[in-house]
């Protein structure tokens, strides 16, 4: 059995554990993710939503995404750390942001989404698959 993914927010008010292996590790370069992080992209791992156990109470913010679905982002109301993202297009899955993992090195991206919105100063690994928009459903 693989080692659980564990992590939490900066202040420790929210912790999580996921026993499932990530379904995919990715970097999303859409403008929405850029604005939500204040950075060039969101690095995340996708896991089955029912495999994630969370302690503490996250707060959510939802927006209509470029995909047409609703993107709901969860964050700590105490320290503001972004933790999770979940789209209405695939509610059975949830994304865990790589930076809040106890071991962020477990994030090994295999695909880059929304590269059509990538910033010109963001030099992407040429070995990683690139998709100009969303991955196929």
Brief description of this entry?
The protein has 137 residues and is mainly beta. Helix content is 5%, strand content 38%. The chain has one domain: Metal Binding Protein, Guanine Nucleotide Exchange Factor, Chain A (Beta Complex), CATH 2.170.150.70.
Describe this structure in words.
The protein is mostly beta strands and 137 residues long. The chain has a single domain, classed as Beta Complex (Metal Binding Protein, Guanine Nucleotide Exchange Factor, Chain A). Helix content is 5%, strand content 38%. The protein has 1 helix and 11 strands. The chain has one helix spanning 31-37, and strands spanning 5-8, 15-18, 24-28, 42-48, 52-55, 59-64, 70-75, 82-87, 93-97, 111-113, 129-130. It has an 8-stranded mixed sheet. Strand 6 and strand 7 form a beta hairpin. The longest helix has 7 residues, at 31-37. The radius of gyration is 14 Å and the shape is globular. The mean pLDDT is 94.
Morphology: globular
Sheet/helix structural class: mainly beta
Q: What top-tier CATH class fits best? A: Mainly Beta
> What is the tally of helical segments?
1
Instruction: Identify the quaternary structure here.
Output: single chain
* Main sheet properties: 8 strands, mixed
Radius of gyration: 14 Å
Average pLDDT figure: 94
SSE string, helix = H, strand = E?
EEEHEEEEEEEE
Q: Beta-strand level of the residues, as a percent range?
A: 35-45%
Strand order of the largest sheet: 6-7-8-9-4-3-10-11
How many strand segments? 11
Low-confidence segments: none
């Amino acid at each position: 059995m693989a080692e659980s993914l564990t992590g939490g927010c900066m202040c420790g008010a929210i912790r999580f554990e996921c026993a499932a292996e990530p379904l995919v590790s990715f970097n999303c370069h859409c403008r929405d993710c850029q604005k939500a992080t204040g950075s060039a992209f969101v690095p995340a791992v996708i896991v089955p939503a029912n495999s994630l156990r969370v302690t503490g109470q996250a707060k959510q913010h939802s927006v209509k995404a470029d995909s047409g679905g609703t993107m709901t982002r969860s964050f700590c109301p105490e320290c503001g750390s972004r933790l999770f993202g979940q789209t209405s297009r695939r509610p059975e899955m949830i994304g865990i942001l790589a930076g809040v993992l106890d071991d962020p090195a477990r994030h090994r991206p295999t695909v880059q989404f929304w590269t059509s919105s990538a910033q010109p100063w963001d030099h992407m690994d040429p070995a990683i698959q690139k998709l100009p928009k969303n991955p196929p459903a």
